[in-house]
Amino acid sequence: DTLTAEKIIKDINSSWDDVKLEYKKISHDTIYVSIPESAALTQGMGSSGAYNYMSSTTFSLTELKNIRFVNFDFAEGDHMAPGTMKRADFKQ
Question: How far apart are CA 25 and CA 22, in angstroms?
Answer without folding.
Answer: 10
